[in-house]
UniProtKB/TrEMBL annotation:
GO terms for biological process: proteolysis. Keywords: Aspartyl protease, Hydrolase, Protease, Signal. InterPro entries: Aspartic_peptidase_A1, Aspartic_peptidase_AS, Pepsin-like_dom, PEPTIDASE_A1, Peptidase_aspartic_dom_sf. This is Acid protease.
Amino acid sequence: MIPLSLVTLALLPLSVLASQDQASPIHVPISKRGNAIPVAKLPYIVDNIRLKYGYDSRLAKNSRRASSAAVPITDEQNDSSYSGQVSIGTPAQTFNVILDTGSSDLWVLTTSCQGCGSSSFNPSSSSTFKQSQSSTELDYGSGAVKGVISEDTVTFAGYTINPQIFLAVTQTSQGLLSSGLSGIMGLGFQTISGLQTAPFWAALSNSSQLSASEMAFYLERYVNSASEVDSAVGGVMTLGGTNSSLYQGSIDYQNFPSGTTPSYWLQNVNSMSVNGNSISISNGLAAIDTGTTMIGAPSDVVQSVVKAISGAQMLSGEYEGMFEFPCNTNVNVTLNFGGQTWPVSAADMNLGQLTTGMSRRASQSMCVGGIFDVGSTISSGSSSGVPAWIVGDTFLKNVYSVFRASPPSVGFAQLASGLNSNTGSSGGSITASASGVPFPTTSSGSGSGSGSNPFGSSGNGAAASHAAMGMTLLGAVAAGAALVL
């Protein structure tokens, strides 16, 4: 199965929150489930990322009261993705979903979806479930989901939106989700929502439930674990603020690059080095995406990266766009955003050893690098607004990352001492609990996001109207409802 979470990206409306007394943030622990990603699956992972961002596919040519909270998140398949628990309905039914700053919609498998697994939402068991007459399809590089646009009470990290619009999935491509996952929670901007509604995160901001219009992530590392990890704490997501126990020093916030609209969470890669060699960058516009496993870069950059690593060479065939290097070589990479340089652990740059027949060099052990060539956009018209870089978890595991909607910006900070050691274990003090604990018991309100509502006047109209007055409209970056991941 190809983990859906390896590819994700999205958008979220900016809210201007009124100044008021706020409770402290809530921190959500992240946990880990699944086995290590087989190297054989990397071509599909890379291909799905390309499709998501509008780049040419190499393989799948036919595919298309205010407060804050800390949430436990799960590290899926040795850093391939990170998930958390969401509750839907009355009484609540709880599911593991991908937490994705790269998409905008909430969807979950239902019991009407044949062959979708036992962890599915049962609409008939919820007294608050409502179903519209509208159905839609969300397309991903590795498949698609189809379902009915619905609404119900949704709770995450102790916060509740009632009602929240989501897609009740009745059909999905085989292998779209890894075992134990039931859907995805998009944490991006509304402008590319396939359901044309405010995502859960935005609905909380619009109804003034959050202390701050931001979310932060500490992601654990297990990619270099000596054994395949079935389940482990995956880090912490903080909703509505930050967690000072997870970083040291100050958070270096960088506003979105001048002239860009907040479509993706955008930054500029100002400079890069590989093993001490400076890499020339002509286009550094990057999407910062917690839902993407690797780092995607322009072709000329990847070629320069390969030249800077002794014994490295580009791969071909289904691995086209990726590169291999001697497994006994440490690849030390730094990325610079806004003048601040951040190192990437050599452990994150090594995605695993190629088996016989995969490598172009049979004389020594060769491993796959954590950077790949995004290639060219599908058409010249799609290049507008499409980032040249996709900076995913290969980088984000090395920093404390903050996504702030007002003003639109992304911030990075140095991890607290002891976090994300090269053994993949956490040696620092994390205030959030391990996965599986109940959601924090902070007071929750109800609200409704703005946007097209197939349910007419249902929902909290007053909250939506109030939120609309304080919202900066960003404009769309892509037409159509399909979400390409």
